[in-house]
């Protein structure tokens, strides 16, 4: 386990009290974001996102399967995340632990609850055959804020996914039917200071974390609080506002990167 | 042709014959031939061919000054991370305080930083460090960051020339551990300047005339502030 | 599964290559921030990312070897790297490949310098198109050098095979599926000694010799690409502006 020297903790807190972050960013500024799509030829859709040095690759695979019994005419979507040992000296090989599971489920909810994928259009034969969408999140380099990088990579991948109809003799390939993407923004708090898009150092000293996914109408689509600290109502309101502001900018960049 | 660059060698690269030169650090010998065993630069002194590593964990040597971070306080010792392949042990007998059995946490706890010295490296690479020396202590305040251990000599400079420059132009207290950890204390801008300058030194560590270049940079920076 | 698919057209292979031609290979060293050594490699349609951590003390203690470091290569294929999505997690094939790669790497790493330690090599296949174990090992070698691990050589791997009674170098996608033999080898280029060798299919002794020679030639060519990638990364440090 990488130990954070308490001196670093004190230094970051001192800087923060003077309104500064170690890398010179404003409290609500994101690091540089890079989005690249169509990376993996074997995947039906893929995207690689870098936020600062954090790097995540999401691949989308589609296959035909049985629908859930209670939704016989709807496609199926599942999300999995792998915190592979490649990405950090602290990630171990083995079955996903809680961090990976939480990450996958939070990204999943953001996509599912916003109804990004029009799953009603993924029915082939009611009660028998539907399209299944597999979202696999692969963390390649961990330098803080996996939630937003993973979410953004998954969105970009889905928005450039082609349904592999040809391979299954169901006609030509066509773009996966999707709607407006919700953008996720994560903040952390340490020593009563709240910062957005935490760097690795900031994440290591964070007491509590809040992820907020918002849509283009400035409505909230998903939220997740993590770690064992607490937030005040006021802090939550401020985080929501900053998430909406950054959400706008990131959404614009996302559309640009997929060529819209 | 390029006077500015030092030559980089890679593992398995042929460097010379045993009949002409002696095999120094970072090399191995096979059938009378000397090869590089590590990614690095050649350093020829007297009759030895040495390869100075460009990357890699800190390789502890006895008497090295190191900055350590306490991993765990145990009954009569502490486990300390000194950025080597192995953690180091600091025994209660090697600190300047009188500690009761089981009271180690009162003095040094997980996350505390110390300025220590490597006491012993045994055959199994079990490491021991000490805090018993006038110059050694528990660190308070300031900022710590990491560089490649292989770049430390460059950051210190010949007879401390580079580090003196940094101290002079930034008015910061700076301590460079042999293990690639650097401690700085001073005002915010000073600390930022030191970090930026050291990152620059790291990037250009292999070029000649670096000390002068850095001095010019620091001078310019200071002038601009006024 | 053999089929009627033609693998040769006018003396050229499906992707236009000659029998002794390699697919295109690109290698970049030092691409990840957290890893101590890393390498990204593209080989035909293969995309592989490798990260090296260590040497670091092996935990738990009972796994330690008091005389030397343990080298653990972990070969893993991303769920989206293949035509039919692969369930995440190691399967038997991945574990076997991990083992033979670990053994090859152990041969050249100077492990006695790090008693009680472990060197972890993480190989992730992000996009797969035949020959992933050769791509993985070749990239792993570069990542190890990038991590500053002492080695007596930089290993490299390449495969040859047989399609439609002809021995060819570096099997591609369909050739792997419809060919009649596959021979991946890894060597220590300085000595030419073999560190990894597997074969499946059917080869006469003569065909084996031909395939071996072809794969060997391939290895030497790729070895130059590895070395260039390493120097490219570090040469820029020797005097920027």
Q: What report would you give on this structure?
A:
Chain A has 260 residues and is an alpha+beta fold. Chain A has a single domain, classed as GHMP Kinase, N-terminal domain (Ribosomal Protein S5, domain 2), CATH 3.30.230. In chain A, 27% of the residues lie in helices and 30% in strands. Chain A is built from five helices and twelve strands. In chain A, the strands form three sheets. In chain A, strands 1, 2, 3, 4, 5 and 6 form a six-stranded mixed beta sheet that branches. Chain A has a four-stranded antiparallel beta sheet with strand order 10-9-11-12, with helices on both faces. In chain A, helix 2 crosses helix 3. Chain A is elongated and about 60 Å long. The N and C termini of chain A lie far apart (43 Å). Chain B is an alpha+beta fold and 226 residues long. Chain B is built from four helices and 16 strands. Chain B has helices spanning 152-156, 161-170, 188-203, 210-225, and strands spanning 8-9, 14-17, 22-23, 27-30, 33-36, 40-45, 48-53, 65-73, 77-81, 88-91, 113-121, 127-130, 137-138, 143-146, 173-176, 181-185. In chain B, helix 2 runs parallel beside helix 4. The longest helix of chain B is centred in the C-terminal third of the chain and has 16 residues, at 188-203. A five-stranded mixed beta sheet of chain C has the order 3-4-5-7-6. In chain C, strands 8, 9, 10, 11 and 12 form a five-stranded antiparallel beta sheet that branches. In chain C, helix 1 (92-108) packs across helix 2 and helix 2 runs parallel beside helix 4. Chain C starts with 7 loop residues before the first strand and ends in a 6-residue tail after the last helix. In chain C, strand 1 (8-9) and strand 2 form a beta hairpin. In chain C, 29% of the residues lie in helices and 31% in strands. Chain C is built from four helices and twelve strands. Chain C has one domain: GHMP Kinase, N-terminal domain (Ribosomal Protein S5, domain 2, 2-Layer Sandwich), CATH 3.30.230.70. Classes of the chains: A alpha+beta (260), B alpha+beta (226), C alpha+beta (241). The B-C interface holds B 2, 4-6, 8, 10-12, 26, 28, 30, 35, 37-39, 53-57, 85-87, 123-125, 150, 203-208 and C 36-37, 54-57, 66, 110, 114-117, 145-154, 189-190, 227, 230-231, 234-235, 237-240.
